[in-house]
């Protein structure tokens, strides 16, 4: 079984900031290597952080 790569909170916040600056969610997800579902989960989890 493959081990999950994992991302730091800083990486999740950086992805969220990119979305706020106008980059599409699809582009961000491709660059980071995550699904859109994961992105929105992060956004919900870390809302108001940073």
TrEMBL record:
Segments for region (Disordered): 1-22
Q: A biological process (GO) annotation for this entry?
A: DNA transposition
Q: Care to name a GO molecular-function term for this sequence?
A: transposase activity
Cited InterPro entries: Transposase_8, Trp_repressor/repl_initiator
The source's domain of life comes to: Bacteria
The record's Pfam families line, in alphabetical order, gives: HTH_Tnp_1 (PF01527)
Q: Where is the composition biased (Polar residues)?
A: 8-22
What is the name of this protein? Transposase (N-terminal)
């Amino acid at each position: 079984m493959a081990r999950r790569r994992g991302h730091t909170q800083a990486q999740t916040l950086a992805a969220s900031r990119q979305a706020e600056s106008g980059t599409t969610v699809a582009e961000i997800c491709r660059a980071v290597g995550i699904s859109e579902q994961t992105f929105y989960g992060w956004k919900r989890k870390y809302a108001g952080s940073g």
